[in-house]
Inverse folding.
């Protein structure tokens, strides 16, 4: 009886841990500035989107970022043209708008969306580069 009970407990424990591990292996999509930079370098096909206003974007942005204003009337229309299977990286000033944009994009079927936790503020605090060149 004891052996059967022990085997049952081990079996249930293994089953529970397998299910829990399957859920916990979800990719961390809120990245620190250094993680965001590393992911940008790894994912050459990723689309980089700055979801701030055009004015904020002009004051300084990450090189090669596209500006799709989260609060603008065309945000959803702008992202419609993106390939949902390609990775997307989003950021804003402090992380609030980009977090909302990332959540929206996932709900629309985007498979891989990364958010810069703390936004461009944390990026600059980490002494990472920004540009004011509108062509970059």
């Amino acid at each position: 009886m004891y052996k059967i009970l022990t085997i049952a407990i081990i079996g249930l424990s293994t089953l529970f841990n397998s299910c829990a591990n399957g859920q916990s292996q979800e990719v961390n999509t809120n990245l620190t500035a250094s993680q965001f930079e590393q992911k940008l370098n790894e994912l050459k096909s990723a689309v980089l989107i700055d979801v701030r206003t055009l004015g904020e974007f002009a004051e300084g942005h990450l090189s090669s970022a596209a500006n799709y204003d989260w609060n603008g009337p065309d945000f959803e229309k702008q992202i419609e043209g993106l390939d949902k299977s390609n990775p997307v990286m989003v950021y804003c000033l402090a992380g609030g708008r980009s977090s909302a944009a990332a959540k929206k994009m996932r709900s629309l079927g985007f498979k891989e969306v990364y958010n810069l936790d703390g936004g461009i503020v944390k990026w600059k605090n980490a002494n990472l580069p920004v540009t004011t060149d509108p062509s970059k």
Notes: Strands lie at 30-31, 47-50, 66-67, 88-91, 113-116. Helices lie at 2-24, 33-42, 54-59, 75-80, 96-107, 119-125.
